[in-house]
Write a structure and sequence with these properties.
two-stranded antiparallel ribbon; 8 helices; mainly alpha
Length: about 190
Amino acid sequence: MKIYFRQLTITSIIFGFLLIPIHESGHVICDWITGHPAAMSYARDYLLSGAHTPFLGLLGGPLLPLILSVVSVVFIYRRTRVSFFYPIAILGSFERLVLYLSGMLPSDEKSLAVMVGWNIYAFKYIFLSIEVSLLLLIIISLIRYKVGFRQAILVFVIPLLSFVVGASLGVFVVERYIFPVQFKIQFG
């Protein structure tokens, strides 16, 4: 299986920048589905009514990148445009993983658990299990397609670096200067 690194890089840059808004879009879409009109900035969603976010609205944020990752893994295993789908699969599965591994409990996961009366870490471990499973499937596909070690490393490094740069640009430029009120609420 040949990896086209130009396509992988372009997809990584675009999806790396859009990953945070995709997460926020998941909240907004699910808020609207439940009848709670919502809006978003680059890095924050909010209900237009000012009410509390419903369960499905909270769930939508972490869930949408995971769904995109699952769909991408399916396309990877079907050998369909793998250079396009690897970055989406990797970033969708890493979206919360870094926070979890650093010991953080994101507010979405904590709020979801409180709403259903579960241990506050329950959703963290549910999402963590899915993310690790997806990453294992991605690694297995690289082995299965006999991608060389250096190329396999690049398949992971390019999307992750693109996310760090894209998210930083999104938060510290787009959010800060285009959505200053939301930036102040979110980051002080």
